[in-house]
Amino acid sequence: MSVLVVGSTALDSIKTPKSENPRLLGGSASHAAVAASFFSPVKLVGVVGDDFPKRYVQLYKRHRIDLTGLQVVPGRTFHWSGEYEANMNNRRTLLTELGVFETFSPALPKSHRDAPFVLLANIAPSLQHHVLDQMEKPRFVAADTMDLWLNIALPDLLKLLKRLDAFVLNDSEAHQLTQEDNVFAALKKIHKLGPRFVIIKKGSHGSILSGPGGFFICPAYPLHKVVDPTGAGDSFVGGLMGYLATARGPIQTHVRRAMIYGSVVASFCCEGFGLLRTTRVSRKQIDQRVKELERLTRF
Amino acid sequence: MSVLVVGSTALDSIKTPKSENPRLLGGSASHAAVAASFFSPVKLVGVVGDDFPKRYVQLYKRHRIDLTGLQVVPGRTFHWSGEYEANMNNRRTLLTELGVFETFSPALPKSHRDAPFVLLANIAPSLQHHVLDQMEKPRFVAADTMDLWLNIALPDLLKLLKRLDAFVLNDSEAHQLTQEDNVFAALKKIHKLGPRFVIIKKGSHGSILSGPGGFFICPAYPLHKVVDPTGAGDSFVGGLMGYLATARGPIQTHVRRAMIYGSVVASFCCEGFGLLRTTRVSRKQIDQRVKELERLTRF
Q1: What residues of chain A score a pLDDT lower than 50?
Q2: What is the per-residue pLDDT across B130-155, written as a single tens digit (0 to 9) for each?
Q3: Do A262 and A239 touch, CB atoms closer than 8 A?
Q4: DSSP A273
Q5: Does residue B188 belong to the interface with chain A, where contact is any CB pair within 8 Å?
């Protein structure tokens, strides 16, 4: 079954103390779509300007991503520029040029409206709503978010939560949303806002699922060196949704394994700038790391 | 088989925004010994003053802890006082009165010298050395430490590392010792300093083992509310050593499960001030949480 992914499609310029990487393919939808493509057919919904490099269109195509929903409009592609500190934990935004993203309205091609799995990757909650408004009874809807929307679009986000099956956010966002320091107390409060499945991402500490089957403590794959964590969270949720879309039977039966797959794709994402490492990964390499995670957590 | 535990035996006065808890039984050896006592016979080595409450001696005895090695000398028992912030993550020391601990020299009774399992709980590395000097070929020696010793007794600690089978420290101490932000990179460097088994504790994020069998990602038991984390790390390593001492065959076969048991005892420790919760726990309750952790991590 296919996954519809909507989110940002951007050019990321990523600076570290050791290197500069200008205008890499980035954005929440790019990372999530590529991650999901290892498992399922993906339909991408987004917008780019007429400066969008052809090689990035080719990259999407190599991952067999359906680009019918990718609008190409006159103007400049969304450009984000950020700088990481030596430890790769702290980053600051140097520049955000919205470009064509400023007036983006995700209009869904007819062929996209019956997609069973919908991933509302990080983007303004109003646009996430707009996508859902056009869908015909999707089977499973998940959304990611970021601190910005908690700050400037909280009412929209709270309304969105009531329309979701799964909500994915990181620990600091969970704290911001619930005023709870304790992850498990925060999960409980977020369920009350709507979603049956809530996943809190904790970076290198893994992630926690709370769902109808109880909690699941999902490990992060051990990395000795993080090259660039940009897009890791998007890769996680993309891999998760891609895997879920292939699985038969109730979501609940597969969601843990789906998180493990998401976690593994995210680990590859961190090993290169932008999507450089992820795009060179094979399904076999992903399966190997999943097996390794089994060995690393068994007791 | 029995576990010899040496460390601090103290009175802890713990303040939180909601309550004050004066002169609780505390200290690294108290927490570790009680934790280990759920699994194995324990011999405690420490020192207290003549002000040490009789009820705490009774508490040790209820846990069948051998007190032959507990010196009771004229003077005041080591007293630590600290205050936690509302989120229970940040604490500051209000007062440290070393008392009889200032001149403590752990002299081992003859009956203690052939203990197969030795836990050098957090205490000055020079005292940890002094205990090892008196031991007759212990089977397995583990040590814990704290940032203070990295700051003021690093040469002693580095010498100690060459005498250990297992070294346990938290993530910020691992960073301080190796200058590595990455836990897995830090583990590699710490092995080069001596120990075959290295465990990095990450509080509510669990712990990571690196040993001859590779890595193990050990979860923390999910707690919705932390009452007092004081002694959780000591309980973890105490439970771990207590469990190891009961297991037959190579350490490597049991060390993962031992960490899980340590993690569970630490979770109980966090649910009450000082040792108030831990001392009311049954082995059955511990086994239940271990089973629950199996369910929480299976995929």
Answers
A1: none
A2: 999 999 999 999 999 999 999 999 99
A3: yes
A4: S
A5: yes
